[in-house]
Design brief:
By secondary structure, the protein is α+β, with helices and mostly antiparallel strands. It has 8 helices and 5 strands; from the N terminus they run H-H-E-H-E-H-E-H-E-E-H-H-H. The chain is globular.
């Protein structure tokens, strides 16, 4: 498979997301009620882009491909790797976290791109998957650093260009989120959204 993103561009994307998204350690909100482990380090198996995983491995054995010893684990890994552009991986864990080695998914969680029905990026919103329990999701007015949001939008815009599979996934996910909020009579919280696109995003474009 042709390499879609160079090592140099990965360095640039990592640098854009090198700053903290908040002015405080959000892990302190959830870790006390989760055996001292932040939910984001305990909820899901990270998915690294294949090129990202290979680039990380060049720097040393920090990320490893997910091992499977049960049918459920194999099913989970296959659900992440089915389209061939991602690798289900794991790191040494929060106690030995090297922040410079954090993957893109670690640097953006719990935010994800919110797209309209045509695939246009409207801004960022929370990951509303029911199995994700990040406490920030319950704080729609949380104050993210403006520079971080600007950088995260740039990163996602580029990733969506490089990985059209991701765009298709987030079109569907954004449609689901809009429907859920519409039933509640609420608007989808958006971060980094342009004023001209806010109306289309909240009226459920592409639903």
């Amino acid at each position: 498979m042709k390499q879609r993103i160079s090592d140099q561009e990965l360095e640039e994307l990592y640098e854009l997301l090198s700053m903290d998204m908040l002015s405080y350690n959000c892990g302190e909100l959830c870790a006390p009620g989760n055996d001292g482990v932040p939910y984001c380090c305990d909820t899901a198996v990270p998915a690294l882009y294949k090129e990202e995983y290979a680039w990380q491995r060049k720097k040393g054995v920090y990320w490893k491909r997910m091992r499977c010893s049960t049918k459920d684990e194999r099913t989970l890994r296959e659900s992440i790797e089915w389209d061939g552009y991602a690798v289900a991986a794991y790191c040494p864990g929060p106690d030995r976290c090297d922040r410079l080695r954090r993957a893109l998914v670690c640097r953006t969680y719990p935010l994800e791109p919110h797209l309209d029905g045509r695939g246009e990026l409207l801004g960022l919103t929370f990951n509303y998957s029911p199995d994700h329990r990040c406490p920030l999701v319950k704080k729609p007015k949380v104050r993210f650093r403006r520079e971080y949001i600007r950088n995260a939008v740039k990163v996602w815009r580029r990733l969506l260009e490089l990985y059209p599979e991701e765009r298709a996934i987030f079109i569907d996910e954004s449609r689901r989120v809009r429907r859920t909020f519409k039933r509640k009579g609420m608007e989808v919280p958006l971060f980094g959204a342009a004023a001209k696109t806010k109306k289309s995003s909240n009226t459920g474009t592409g639903v």
